[in-house]
């Protein structure tokens, strides 16, 4: 199992996760969104797809047991644990344009979009290839009568987490989100941890030499 | 104004629409979905984005007055008329994989995805670049309590239509949708018409030589 890595507030990173490994995204202080993107590491033209995923899941409320699909209809990530049960898969990462639109009186920030673009560039992912993200812990209720979307503070508490099993070799982009509304008005870090198959960890229930 | 063009059942097409022109998508027989994609004709890496659009509109119920944005946060199409008021911008075009998933007992069809991929190939759009479509007349209610999506028959009646003003020079992909659930179980054509700026049509209220 890898060490717990920390993404500082309003920043992002990218890293590889091999097929079979588990990626856990942790909200260490609570009320903080993490935008997650996934690309096939064999061909980054294969990318996480909100439209395929929502179509197959037949719900916008994705949680344990749901599969996140690629634009080629292949499983990329399966949600295997989720202590929150409230995430968003409708909206694109916040960006300079988002800040100009929603926060004209506040300093402009490159947002998750800019953070992801920089982090993913070494993997050959161009900014135009950044799609709708799976926004861990983001609280976006939809009014069934009017269709209106609201962006409310996350309900995640300190230490809440969501775990994904990688269904193919992946490049992951992950942020600590930079937008005011998404995070209840302030900005906190995001932690993540990767558990590799065949690591030295002793599986639960396995014989121990201790 | 162009002639009314007909898209036969379960097929698709692509064409250019210049900035300022009006594209009207018509459901001639009623209860038929049309998947619509838009790309900048100057650079097809700029593409219609559900995530940007829903974020800026703050609703999933898009109708007259709403703007459909690109992945670069630029307006692509403004909805200027809409006799239905019920469309979908959550789901990707139906495909071979969609048919295998939802209709395992029925003949597999390449679906809107295959139809769009073929029609857009001459414009330099690769299949992996096909995103969530703006699905004209598609009826996808969301249950606010559970998040569950349903695909119900369209409420569009014969002759119902939606009109868009092009906000940039565009390549449009458009289908008569091939999926059973989207269209109430059978398949009908879709019509469309383009009204160009500076065409020979006499604007309403303009002086006539007749």
TrEMBL record, chains A, B:
InterPro entries: DUF1989. It holds the Pfam family DUF1989. Residues 5-171 form the DUF1989 domain. This is Urea carboxylase-associated family protein. It comes from Sphingomonas oryzagri.
């Amino acid at each position: 199992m890898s060490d717990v890595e920390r993404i500082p507030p309003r920043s992002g990173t990218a890293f590889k996760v091999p097929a079979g490994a588990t990626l856990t995204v942790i909200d260490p202080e609570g009320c903080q969104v993490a935008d997650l993107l996934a690309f096939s590491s064999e061909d980054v033209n294969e990318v996480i797809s909100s439209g395929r995923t929502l179509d197959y899941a037949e719900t916008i409320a994705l949680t344990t047991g749901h599969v996140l699909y690629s634009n080629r209809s292949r499983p990329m990530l399966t949600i295997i644990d989720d202590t929150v049960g409230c995430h968003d898969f409708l909206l694109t990462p916040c960006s300079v344009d988002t800040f100009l639109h929603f926060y004209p009186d506040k300093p402009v920030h490159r947002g998750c979009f800019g953070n992801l673009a920089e982090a993913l560039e070494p993997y050959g992912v161009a900014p135009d290839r950044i799609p709708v993200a799976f926004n861990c812990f983001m609280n976006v209720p939809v009014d069934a009568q009017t269709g209106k979307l609201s962006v409310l503070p996350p309900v995640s508490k300190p230490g809440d987490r969501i775990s994904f099993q990688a269904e193919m070799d992946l490049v992951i982009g992950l942020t600590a989100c930079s937008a005011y509304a998404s995070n209840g008005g302030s900005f906190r870090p995001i932690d993540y941890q990767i558990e590799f198959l065949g690591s030295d960890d002793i599986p639960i229930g396995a014989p121990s030499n201790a």
